[in-house]
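Hi L., both proteins are below.
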Amino acid sequence: MKKNSLGMSLLVILLATSTAFAQQKRALTHDDYDGWERLGSEKITKNGQWIGFQVSPQDGDGRLELFPTKSPDKRRVIQRGESFSFTADDAFAVGRIVPQKDSVYVLKLKKAKKDEMPLDSLFIYELATDEIEKLARVKSFATPEEEGSWIAVLFEKEKEKKKDKSEADSTATEQKTEKPKKTDGTKLLVRSLDGAISHEFERVKTYGFSPSGSHLYYVLAEEDTLDNAAIYLLSLSNGESKLISEGMTSYEGMTFSPAGEYLAYLTTDDSTKSKKPYHELFLVETETASAAIVADKNSSGILKNGRVSADGNLKFSEDGQRLFFGVAPDYVDYAYESDTTILDEDRVSLDIWGWQDDEIQPMQLKGKSRDEKFTYLAALDLASDQITQLADLEVKNVILESEVDRDFALAWTDDPYRINYSWNIQIGRDLYLIDFATGERTLIEKDATGYPSVSPEGKYVYWYDSRDSSWVAFEVASKAKINLTKALPVEFYDELHDSPSMPGSYGNAGWIEEDEAFLVYDRFDIWKIDPQNPSQAINLTQGKGRESNTVYRRQVLDRDEEGIDPEGKLLVTAFNEKTKDSGFAEASIDGGFAPKSILMTANRYYGLTKAEESDEIFFNKSTYIENPDLYLSDLSFKKITKVSDLNPQQADVNWGTVELVDYLSLNGDSLQGLLFKPENYDATKKYPMMVYFYERSSDGMHNYRSPAPSASTINIPYFVSNEYLVFVPDIKYELGLPGPSALNCIVPGVQAVVAKGIVDEANMAIQGQSWGGYQVAYLITQTNMFKAAGAGAPVVNMTSAYGGIRWGTGMSRMFQYEQTQSRIGGTLWDKPLYYLENSPLFFMDRVETPVLIMHNDEDGAVPWYQGIEMFMALKRLQKPAWLLQYNGEDHNLRQRKNRKDLSVRLSQFFDHYLKGAPAPLWMSEGLPAIQKGKTLKYELED
């Protein structure tokens, strides 16, 4: 008994000490955001011996860290280093050094001229010697992708030196007769990375290496008004530079073949102001630097009345024997457009919306630039000089793979179904195979759903058929369609899908080498399917995923693989849907054993990357408390080393914890939510609580959430650090009832947390953005349990929003209500009552909750007038409401200055209502237009 009492006493002392220590930590402030760091650009050398990453604060100067994987403590830190890469030979790291942001800011305050601003530098760091070289005033740089130890550096223009008076007087006559020559070109330095070999060229505009680093092209810019632009080819083996062509207006699209034996480019001698420049396609043999025209507007085989276009990309097949290029219809001369007797002020400007148009006018206008530059793919056979037009006006889209190593490609068109796209975003498309040699098209399927791909060996075309909820394959040789998953005992569609549309799939893991089998996912497990005998598919994870609520997915280790090695190791990621634990396991490629856990912890793991030529790996690991730092290991995972340590200042901050809350919706569905508590949480106290929601968020339990200024929603770490509870419930939707579904899931979740006895239930608030903003607007018409609410970009009137436009894409909003997030599942005329009953606007007279609305005047997703409708209803009803409208801003705030402003106003608004803090003047007095730009009115009332 005494021992137990003593143990309890010690425990109480320890807990009290821990609580006191936590209470000594400071709360996050809005000033903390800028310095909070994040990782980026993590890279490893091919041999796995060096690693590097960039550390960037949210605002300020970052750094680059480079170090050997075996000795992480021996690191080189390059201040303000970014945009880095390891060279193809694993011997160097190269990258930019950008100017100090404080210096740039001061110069901007002084309204310094452009040529007075500091410019980027280049660093060349030799890994073996720890020696670093820096070059100033760098415009761009490049190294070969695959082989070679070379670098090309294009410099900025040299600053003109200021002359003293005596020098100016002595050269006055010279200046009158000799002006500096005008050109876009600058100096190009091409050198071996060790500096032993160097070449310099003046007046260079563009340049590029062949993948193997054997050659480099460079283009000279025009000088003054002379027609002296030119393209040269430099052989890096002997340093000889050969002129390929000169005197043309432009040289564009330069592209080397994969092995570097050819260079292709486009050129024209038409004026740069010409509305219809005609281009010629040239092919250069790099060994001899001899060039020949291989296609122009008169070439046989290209699109009728077509022309070679610079808007298309040039691309070689992997064997270098085919060259693909773009062809565009010739320009049409319209009499009205070319009539020079009409003043611009007298020209008619209008949009005509026609019911017969495939796309409505806003979509056409959004895509106008894209459509004007659209090109139709053609192929040139280098052996026969034959050109084959692959895409045409009937079938416009031909899909070239990243590495073209077969004689055909996929082609598709959705033109026959495009007119329905404004309300049906799951329209079908007609699928074809197209032969590169003949241009002949073979129909795979009409009105297919899904996005097809070709198996690595080209034996099958495969896709997920959402109408049939199955994976299907088309066998190229037999032209037979095969249903791969229909006969299997599990579903391959998204089991949690809850919108009135066809559910998607869980994806696939790729093909076994030689196209022997296809690996595909159900909700939890991995299946291996022989397309010749799909009913005999093997569950590689033996159903253990579904049995344990663990999602298994194949971890790709070779980004360039063409097929999965049947003898190789099958590393899989593991995620438990119930506990949110994750990690890695080993599975069998033939299903011979159940997954063997390698690592499974209460963390989030992501970003695993393997070195090309060794078993060295790195990955990120996080929790809500632990920053997603970088860790090193090998494929055994036996030794894991943490190699980054971001945000040490967090140790001095009252941070927080997160836990799962299990509860039942009002319909009896099992749901989960995330409850965030402050680090100095005191079980004897009751806390004000913020409730934030969107759809389902609980799987992100172990995501690290950085303190950051708000683009639209509350920053959870900030509110938790300032002694709020934050609850994030999951929501399951019933079709046609989005508002009631939110109510049925959010309210019981909140009640489950309140039942814990830790919430000051008189001081709870809700906040959401976009779809979350809609749900906030709906909830406050149904319940008064929340003391304050924040609604960002809310739809409050589905009847008016239904006929609106998503200006960001130009699409009609109809699809959103009929098929996706709004979940009504029918037209306004089919289900008028559903649109009315789910629209908060018609029930605003019930609202007793003060509301802070944010809706911006360039919102491209939710019509701005929706926020206005909500505000005006509340104002008319004399309900406390404020509308924040950031000028020129989109759906979510893009500019950091506005994000910081919103963060201040969100915290002031909720602190006032939930903590009794004085109201800021912008709430109590407003901000009259006459004071706009003169004051922010953050000051609190006395």
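That was the first. Here is the second:
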Amino acid sequence: MKTKNTIYAAALFLTATFFSAQSQKSSFSLDLNGASTGIKIQPTMYGIFFEDINFAADGGLYAELIKNRSFEFDEPLTGWKQPNTKTLSPNLDSGFLTIITDKSKPNKNYARVTVSNDKNYLLENEGFRGIGLHQGGKYDLNFNLENVSGNISAINISLVDENGTVVSSVSNIIKGSGWQKYNAVFNPSKTIEKAKLQITFTGNGVVNMDMISLFPQDTWKGRKGGLRKDLVQKLYDLQPGFLRFPGGCIVEGRTLAERYQWKKTIGKVEDRENLINKWNNGFAHRLTPDYWQSFGLGFFEYFQLAEDLGAEPLPILSCGMACQFNTAELVKMEDLDPYVQDALDLIEFANGNSNSKWGKIRAEMGHPKPFNMKFIGVGNEQWGADYIERYKVFEKAIHTKYPDIKIVSGSGPSPDGEFFDYGWKELKKLNAQIVDEHYYNSPEWFMKNAGRYDKYDRSGPKVFAGEYAAQSVGVVKPDNKNNWLTALSEGAFMTGLERNADVVTMTSYAPLFAHADGWQWTPDLIWFNNLKSYATPNYYVQKLFSNNKGTEVLKITDHGKPITGQDQLYATAVKDADSKETIIKLVNTDAKSKSVTINPANLKLGNTLTKITLTAPQLSTENSFENEPIQPKEETVSLKKGKMTVEIPSQSLIILKVSNFK
């Protein structure tokens, strides 16, 4: 995800003229040929791109509710408050907290709490824009504590609502000497979106505390310390073919020191080294100084999530180039070996047997069987000669040791221009396997580019449409909306992706998630707050394509030509060998409805048609936490033998499914 300052600066809404233009005809006759085209649709055709932007990981998918649980931020008390503690005071009437640092450890900080008056000392955590609690839910509290001195006999922890009213509380008797692990379970008496956690003590003295953690018990698959259930369910419902992670520019980092290093995200959660998030100050319009990465959601958890979703894992690794929109720091070619070794070691971590060095670590984490990773990405969206030079080294090393791994390379952040052209030219020379293209652009651009891949080289590298989303106002504009106009234009564009499945083998919308109170970038596929989430119109477009992708492209034409926006109509057709269905996707961007007759050849179709319609009252309509007016509606229609005639509402996406007969 980057500031695409080379794309354009003009307004990005379609003009009224574009949509008010009336089609010269409202009835269409399309030809559908059931003969084999030989164009197979890959299982990876529609997937998911995950990046920790918009509080997507900590505060989002990763279900931890305590911010800065181990006091590791640059400002170690970020997220924590001591309401009754004064600066420049010994605080004899309350107490105070200091940070102890042991730089020999990856998780280097812990809190030393001195309680002088247990009736007045209070330590409080605000969570991620609050702590979401559901009445009737159960929440696991865990923390580490060392009793250092004094007579502190108990630690008392409460969850309070916005008014400070206690909704659940627990008390733990302090035991023994040295560091001890403690746990308890909260049962909130009501539902709260922005609760806080409060800590008090019984007795005076000194204790050390670390890894203060709170998780809902009702996580995805019930895993302790796991993922937020409602968010994973929305991903599962997409039926994704792959999961690309962990980014995105977050892979590169603002500097090489801040790049994403997968080896620091595995092993025991408490031993994972925290890191500032690249999007901490990535956008002046949404500065988030409290945005860090705990890596509780690390590479093991990403692989596990991909497995849960039935998706191929697609990890992206640093190629020794920091974000070119930031420092553009380069590792010298003679110092590139550790970066290359990280890639080789990751393949062993994912696929090696449990006797190998990295496969053993995976097994010890609870997954003895290999993850069977097939893809790896070298760099995110780098550009220029420096990238090509480094890509060559990675490609040779990976394919020398692991010839079956498919490597994803990149063509930069833009869908055209000098760097895009240069990247493609060089990657073609190198016989690259898959090239990642990114496009954030206007709705009009997406509709006009539905034929983008019709003339791509069929013998060249395959295309991964790795990041795309229509921008209602402008790229990196905070006022962008997930409205029906953007979703409809993406649907039009996706017909061209699917029609060219012999070239385009992977696609994913971006970004995936956004916290309603913690976002930096818009638009986004799924929005959430501390209690619930909703699906955007864009989500439902993605879902309809992914859930109905089929296994082979069929030819559907208008007077022998692909349907790429003529009279504001777009179409693609597939057959599904598994469900034994023919599936047609039609997008009408016109302000008028259309009557479409489809004439099948080389096909024997059933007499019943399933019609799924996705549309909206207005192009500006959006979904929200309160209401999702834009959702698919399904109906069954009887067909006359030999052809089908359907009404396509104005500004709509239609899925038609009919059984095949031999």
